[in-house]
Amino acid sequence: MGWFKTFMEKYVTTHDTGGVSIDADTVIIDISAETYLKELAVYTAVSLISNAISRSEIKCFVAGKPQKNQDYYLLNVSPNKNETSSLFWHKVINTMVRGGEALVVNNAGKLYVARSFTREEERPILGDTYTGVDIGGGVTLRKKFNQSNSYLFKLDNIEVNKLIMGMFESYDKILQAAASAIKRSGAKKYKLHIDSVKAGDKEFQEEYRNVIQKQLREYLKSDDAVYPEFDGYALTADEATKTTGGSSNDFIALRNDVFKTVAGAFHIPDAMMTGNINNLKDVINSFLTFGVDPFADNITEALNKCGGVDNYLKGNYYKVDTGKVKHRDIFELATAIAAVISSATLSINEVREEIGWERVEEEWADQYYITRNFAEIGKYLEETESGDTQVQEKGGVRRL
Residue 136 in contact with residue 83, Cβ under 8 Å? Predict the structure, then answer.
């Protein structure tokens, strides 16, 4: 709800209810269509990136080997009692984009995204400290946090959201003009011809205001209506004011332009923002490389920075793996799986984990296999001449 509150405060004009009591959950607001469009574009971009990060696996390495420990549970399953990791990372990415940075604190072994905080000390050498950390629900932590128990995620020094909103100030007038043109193109105007004698009659003018004008208004508003036309009156369409104006295609083109502009700011392929995807594989690869990986790298670096250089050199570190973001069909991957197993690139269990399957608790599933195609030519010729066709094992690699 944090981003919605910010959105409300920035864009919404509330109404005075004149002392009328309304439900506490009811808010009467005015929001322009242009604001909706801008907010929808930014939300779409942030949602795409957040979904990708939440689908990624944050691997925890201990002594250079991946482990599923408490840190793994906090980062991939549930960081605290009230949130799942998916919701947690959505909040982190959304806060980064809209506020320029996101602070996550470790309190009593649980992780929380700060809704607001105070940078108490800026210490370039020892590291900044933070106080007054609001984690939502009316809870503000009194504890002082430093670089050992907090993570500051900050992609760069520029608040992308502010740049986008500033640029869209010029789009507002264009969007309003397009909407007005579409409205005018569908409007109809009429001429009411009145006898010149009646036009100058004060009694008639009063009758026109109270009766005829009301009848005309109801007639023009209704889809099906009958208008009684009296002698001395003639209602005709005003062809001179008829205009072709703009069409809905103009508005759609502007909408697509807004979405493409936001896509460029977040390095997301236009096709993903507009939904017009032709080459899905290339689009997804481009999205992951330029739109998601920078956020993944930032999270990886922030997590490892907190652990310190000693832990990192000992092989204790974190890594955000975005390889599982894409949907994988086991039958489409069959040839590739056979290739990585037969070349000793991955073991069977490593392949199963990569595609999201459970490990096989057998010794052979952790061994590496290599075919004769990858053997050294000299050894291959020696084995061929000796007629040795048995499976050989050497250094944990089984040669077939």
Answer: no
CA 392 to chain centre: 51
CB 154 within 8 A of CB 101: yes
* Continuous segment of H or E residues that includes residue 134: strand 129-136
CA nearest neighbour of 34 among 160, 165, 161, 163: 165
CB 273 within 8 A of CB 44: yes
State the amino acid at position 87 in one-letter form: L
Do 191 and 238 contact (CB within 8 A), yes or no?
yes
**DSSP class of residue 115?**
S
SS3 of 63, please?
coil
Q: Is the dihedral of CA 399, 358, 47, 97 positive or negative?
A: negative
Question: What is the rounded distance in angstroms from the CA atom of residue 83 to the CA atom of residue 330?
Answer: 31
Nearest to 285 by CA among 263, 265, 266, 268: 268
Nearest one of 217, 164, 156, 223 to 39, comparing CA atoms: 164
Tell me: the pLDDT tens digits for 91-144?
999 998 888 889 999 999 999 999 999 998 888 888 889 999 999 889 999 899
CA distance 391 to 386: 14
119 vs 133: CA distance, rounded Å: 10
Helix (H), strand (E) at residue 60: strand 57-62
Can you tell me the distance from the alpha carbon of 229 to that of 234, in angstroms, rounded to the nearest whole number? 7
Q: Quick count: other Cβ atoms within 10 Å of Cβ 316?
A: 18
Q: What is the pLDDT of residues 366-385, one digit of tens each?
A: 888 888 776 665 565 566 55
Is 50:273 a contact under the CB 8 Å cutoff? Answer: no
